[in-house]
Specification:
It comes from Piscinibacter sakaiensis (Ideonella sakaiensis). The protein is α/β, with parallel strands linked by helices. It contains 13 helices and nine strands. Bound molecules: ligand C2E and magnesium ion (MG) (3 copies). Ligand C2E binds next to strand 2, helix 2, helix 3 and strand 6.
Length: 291
């Protein structure tokens, strides 16, 4: 997408507004064309090492620059794509594009882990792991550099089937992250058996840190659980210095949130990583990394 397009904010299609049936049909038709028209782009949000603030990798987040409606949130168009059978073509594009970008960064001298989000429908695709393996080969990427983020609620949904998919992904060699942890209903015995490497604490818990004492105890317990299961633990949605301080003190491994960086274009991310802009350069960051 054009460089200037990144500066716009979500306008008419905030997730909270109910999207009427007519609008959904319009968006669905537009979405069908969006892939071909290069209106979709992956933005990347850094994950940083909690003790040092150094970048460890980035999560790919889909962005849709609609030609007339501006930026449309994935929280709006992904549910539509899922409902109307478009999520697999979109998801396949994400996998390919993230691997292509990882290769481009590698060629620039930037060794960056990349994470992609997977929808429940993608997990039901019989050839998902094979597809991911092919994309990795196409761009000659070490599978360990790719993480698949799967939400806790999806991971726990159909235990037997999900375990098979996880095993196939693990065989390909990619890492698996349990996203939005704390919002689903985990079975601990099942969680223990899952071949995952990472657990991401949902933003709702992070938000309440420093405000609500329960939140701190819950996050402490989740971090200890992750440690007991030998999972790396990441906190999402870190916005304040206070949340950062608490998470660091509790031993959280990695952090993600607006305090460090908003999701940004691939080009901006490579500038960010190359210049090693630290968490203190607030004004500079503000000017560079609008959504
Ligand atoms: P997620 O995977 O849990 O991603 C985190 C969301 O939180 C992102 O929203 C990110 O921009 C936002 N975020 C990060 N840090 C902060 C913060 O400090 N404060 C606040 N308020 N928000 C923060 P985004 O990009 O709008 O994506 C929303 C959701 O849409 C994602 O949640 C994910 O479930 C889904 N999504 C995005 N891209 C894809 C994709 O390529 N495939 C699939 N299947 N789902 C995607
Ligand atoms: Mg995610
Ligand atoms: Mg998440
Ligand atoms: Mg989330």
């Amino acid at each position: 997408a054009a460089k200037g397009a990144g500066g716009s904010t979500y306008c008419f299609y905030e997730p909270r507004m109910s999207t009427g049936a007519r609008e959904q049909v319009d968006l669905l038709n537009d979405l069908r064309r969006a892939l071909a028209n290069r209106e979709l782009e992956l933005y990347y949000q850094p994950k940083v090492h909690a003790p040092s603030g150094e970048i460890t990798g980035a999560e790919a987040l889909m962005r849709w620059h609609h030609p007339t409606r501006g930026m449309i949130s994935p929280a709006v168009f992904i549910p539509i794509a899922e409902r109307f059978g478009l999520i697999n073509p979109l998801g396949n594009w994400v996998i390919d594009e993230a691997c292509r970008q990882a290769r481009a960064w590698r060629d620039e001298g930037l060794r960056m882990r990349v994470a992609v989000n997977l929808s429940v429908y993608q997990l039901r695709q019989a050839d998902l792991a094979e597809r991911i393996g092919e994309a990795l080969q196409r761009y000659n990427i070490n599978p360990k550099l790719l993480t698949c983020e799967i939400t806790e609620s999806v991971a726990m949904e159909d235990a037997v089937e999900t375990m098979k998919v996880f095993d196939r992904l693990a065989q390909v060699g990619v890492h698996i992250s349990i996203d939005d942890f704390g919002t689903g209903y985990s079975s601990l015995s099942y969680l223990r058996k899952l071949p995952a490497e990472e657990l991401k604490i949902d933003r709702s818990f992070v938000q309440d840190l420093g405000i609500n004492e329960d939140a701190e105890r819950v996050v402490d317990a989740v971090i200890k659980l992750a440690q007991a299961l030998q999972l790396k633990v990441v906190a999402e949605g870190v916005e304040t210095e206070q949340q950062y301080a608490i998470l660091r003190a509790l031993g959280c491994d990695e952090l993600q949130g607006y305090l460090f960086a908003k999701p940004m274009s691939a080009r901006t991310l490579s500038l960010w990583a190359m210049n090693d802009i630290g968490p203190k350069d607030m004004d500079f960051r503000e000017s560079l990394y609008g959504d």
